[in-house]
């Protein structure tokens, strides 16, 4: 019933009104507390709690602020709800696909236009000498999941990283300071494109990576791709190259917007984009 009241299919004003009432009457707090009860069956957590909380907090500053207050990672990181959710989504050997996707859905709703929520997670990615070799941090979970051969864990990590930086220049700058299967490559490219959008520092940082531009161009220029998945990767590379051109601050002459345009016209061929 609660999910029906705040369904994205409803009118915006009705969703906002229901979200406000659910918070004010204490229902959101009660649902959240159920997430911390270890005896709650996983299927209930998947189908009811995570998806319901996600819909209740989506695009609602007040409700997101409540979640910020209960997931804040100050203190024992291993005891935080975010820590447990990321572990279940990425590292738990007994994780189910439906649970992984439900956790990702909740995190997407929670992070939508939520600057504080993004900063709570991003601050765990900052260099921490004491935890450099610690395998029980959110930093470790995200990095290992991002590079994992488990395609679902890699996909979830890449999409989560994208939601951490989308529409947030500050998050893009912060994440730059943090230290190939098809699904993994797509997730990586989606993250890179999100990182590059409206962020000249991100473009400059990625342009500085040796052979970074050369790899993207080689993928675009490859005419032998017939598989739909490879064509998707080629399209994402073309999109990334376009972002290089648009948001380039031209501080590296060899990779300036004009030099990339020249490569497109003379080397790749403008007809490839038509």
Automatic annotation (TrEMBL):
Instruction: Show where the Vesicle tethering protein Uso1/P115-like head domain sits.
Output: 85-176, 184-271
Q: Which UniProt keywords apply?
A: Golgi apparatus
Q: What does the record list as coiled-coil region(s)?
A: none
GO BP, sorted A to Z? endoplasmic reticulum to Golgi vesicle-mediated transport; Golgi vesicle docking; intracellular protein transport; transcytosis; vesicle fusion with Golgi apparatus
* Cellular localization per UniProt: Golgi apparatus
Q: Which PANTHER family match?
A: GENERAL VESICULAR TRANSPORT FACTOR P115 (PTHR10013)
- This chain's protein is named Vesicle tethering protein Uso1/P115-like head domain-containing protein
Native organism is Rotaria sordida
């Amino acid at each position: 019933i609660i999910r029906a009241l705040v369904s994205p299919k409803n009118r915006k004003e009705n969703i906002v009104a229901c979200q406000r009432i659910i918070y004010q009457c204490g229902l959101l707090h009660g649902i959240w507390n159920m997430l911390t009860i270890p005896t709650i069956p996983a299927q209930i957590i998947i189908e009811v709690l995570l998806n319901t909380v996600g819909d209740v907090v989506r695009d609602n500053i007040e409700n997101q602020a409540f979640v910020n207050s209960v997931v804040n990672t100050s203190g024992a990181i291993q005891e935080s709800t975010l820590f447990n959710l990321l572990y279940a989504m990425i590292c738990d050997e007994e994780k189910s696909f439906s649970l992984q996707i439900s956790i990702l859905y909740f995190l997407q709703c929670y992070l939508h236009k939520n600057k504080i929520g993004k900063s709570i997670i991003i601050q765990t990615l900052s260099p921490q000498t004491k935890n450099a070799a610690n395998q029980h941090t959110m930093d470790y979970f995200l990095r290992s999941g991002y590079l994992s051969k488990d395609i679902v864990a890699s996909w979830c990590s890449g999409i989560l990283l994208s939601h951490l930086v989308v529409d947030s220049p500050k998050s893009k700058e912060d994440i730059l300071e943090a230290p190939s299967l098809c699904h993994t490559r797509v997730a990586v490219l989606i993250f890179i494109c999100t990182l590059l959008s409206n962020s000249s520092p991100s473009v400059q940082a990625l342009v500085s990576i040796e052979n970074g531009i050369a790899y993207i161009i080689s993928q675009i220029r490859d005419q032998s791709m017939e598989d739909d998945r490879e064509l998707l990767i080629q399209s994402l590379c073309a999109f990334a190259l376009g972002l290089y051109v648009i948001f380039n601050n031209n501080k590296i002459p060899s990779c300036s917007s004009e030099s990339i345009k020249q490569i497109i016209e003379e080397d790749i061929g403008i007809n490839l984009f038509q």
